[in-house]
Amino acid sequence: SYELKNLCSEVLKEENCLEINNNTLVDRFGNSDGIIQLIQISMMHTLYILRIMYELNIMPLAIQISNICGFFIGKTLQGGRSERNEYLLLHAFNEKNYIVPDKRKHKRGIEREEFAMDMTTATQGDLTQVEGETTTVGANGKRKKAAYA
To answer: For the chain, what are the domain ranges?
Structure first.
């Protein structure tokens, strides 16, 4: 699990990471001491996060990935794993002088085109059989949304 408490125990070997319970959160706003405790806990969580980043060498690795892929560091830190993997593969292909394959269109895009072609032949109020499901078609040739009671 990637919760802060679990990361603290696994990476930092610390078991005393405090968590704020949602039920007690509202009560802590009742007085100034509770708010000060919330601020202190938030600052400790930030410190734990920084220590985890240091232990896992996240910044040097992110900079290295950014240099390889040609990204800005912010995009590397914000981007998903699949995007980084894609650019690392493209870089490796380019390095070995391989021809980079074209991106494939997703199957959903093809289905939408077929659906749009079927809908152009439909008229208002018709029941149309499209890809195994019966739908009601509106005046503009688009599917009507389901009406729930």
So the answer is: 1-56, 57-103
